[in-house]
Design goal:
This protein is an alpha+beta fold. Helix content is 67%, strand content 7%. The protein is built from eleven helices and six strands.
């Protein structure tokens, strides 16, 4: 931990750093590749929409010895539709069948009671209408659109429009990757998925705003100096907040990973899968986009500004002049060194000390009162 703290301090002071901005084309390429993969997965496989969005019936049984796989076969035979079965912590089963009306629900309940040897009254049946699910989906999209608009307005006021645009691109990037992975993995999209998806937007935006705030502070009065370009200051802003972003992301991913791999994977809790997968993927994508997408994109947009272009020219011209001035001095130093090698061993350049001087040491004023001579 102490080494990590020392590294963070060095990154913050600019003593060490990684050239994130200089390699931005690599990050753009990686992001484009991941995004295309997510879009292809979404187009080919589609989303596995839950019963809350498609409508159907949910049957909850008491504790039973029937396995989930066997109950899935019973429900599919009784309904004529694919069924999704989840094991509950109480030992019961949760059976979901899409596209079922009230009459069909009663028939399925009766057949499940017979096949699973459970009293029909002990099986709880809930119907979900497709119109309710469509309403929930519309509300979610509306909330997402309003959130995006408010974010852009706030960032444009607090920072500038370039940062607002970069943050919007990063958010769309995170949502696309998360939804695409849902399609590839095949997890069911439920209300928990929507909640998790909306939650990750705040985490993603948090990391981005932290870097933007550091960038805003470090670029005050940037045009008055000729040492650094905007991209170089942006790169320093990423490095100065890098350890903080990593720490906050890891701390957030640990409990979410516990929900996903332990709660959802080993315990079979379906709702935990729905929420935790969207949170896990979204948090990781948000941390990536804030470092590798948002800030490099701001630097690209800012470098197009005529003022920043002029600043970059001045900085590069000053460095070229300094390099040209330093080169003759280096050449002269090398020439002096070669002349030294050509001279006899007992010779030395004028004014140079060759070693101890064999001259008598005068003991003026030593061993007697000051100012008197004998």
């Amino acid at each position: 931990m102490s080494k990590l703290g020392n590294l963070g301090a060095k990154l913050y002071r600019g003593e060490v750093g990684y050239d994130f901005i200089g390699k931005r084309k690599i990050w753009y390429g990686v992001s484009i590749l991941i995004t295309i993969t997510a879009i292809v997965g979404l187009a080919v496989r589609g989303l596995n929409m839950g019963i809350e969005f498609e409508g159907g019936a949910i049957f909850t049984t008491p504790k039973t010895s029937v396995s989930a796989q066997k109950a899935e076969e019973y429900a599919a035979d009784a309904s004529g539709h694919p069924a999704v079965v989840q094991e509950l912590g109480s030992g019961g089963l949760r059976i979901q069948v899409a596209g079922v009306d009230t009459a069909k629900s009663d028939q399925i309940k009766a057949e499940l009671s017979k096949d699973m040897d459970i009293k029909a009254d002990d099986i709880n049946a809930d119907l979900v209408g497709p119109s309710w699910g469509a309403s929930i989906a519309n509300k979610a999209w509306q909330g997402l659109a309003i959130f995006m608009v408010l974010v852009v307005i706030y960032l444009a006021i607090a920072f500038e429009w370039r940062m607002a645009l970069a943050a919007l691109v990063a958010l769309i990037h995170d949502i696309t990757i998360t939804v695409g992975i849902y399609a590839l993995v095949g997890f069911e999209v439920t209300q928990g998925t929507v909640i998790g998806l909306l939650t990750i937007l705040g985490y993603s935006l948090y990391d981005t705003v932290v870097v933007f705030d550091s960038l805003k502070e470090q670029t005050k009065g940037l045009e008055k100096q000729t040492r650094w370009t905007y991209s170089e200051v942006a790169n320093r802003s990423i490095n100065s907040t890098l350890v903080r972003s990593i720490n906050t992301t890891v701390v957030a991913l640990l409990p979410v990973g516990g929900l996903l791999f332990i709660g959802g994977g080993f315990l079979g809790a379906g709702m935990l899968n729905d929420i935790s997968l969207s949170l896990f993927v979204g948090l990781a994508a948000g941390a990536y986009s804030s470092i590798f997408i948002a800030t490099p994109l701001v630097a690209d947009l800012k470098e197009r500004d005529p003022k920043m272009k002029a600043l970059k020219k001045r900085v590069l011209a000053k460095r070229a002049a300094a390099a040209a001035k330093a080169e003759p001095a280096v050449v002269g130093h090398q020439a002096d060194a070669s002349e030294d090698d050509a001279e006899p061993e007992d010779a030395a350049p004028a004014g140079a000390a060759t070693g101890p001087r064999n001259q008598p040491v005068r003991n003026r004023g030593r061993g007697r009162p000051s100012g008197k001579r004998r």
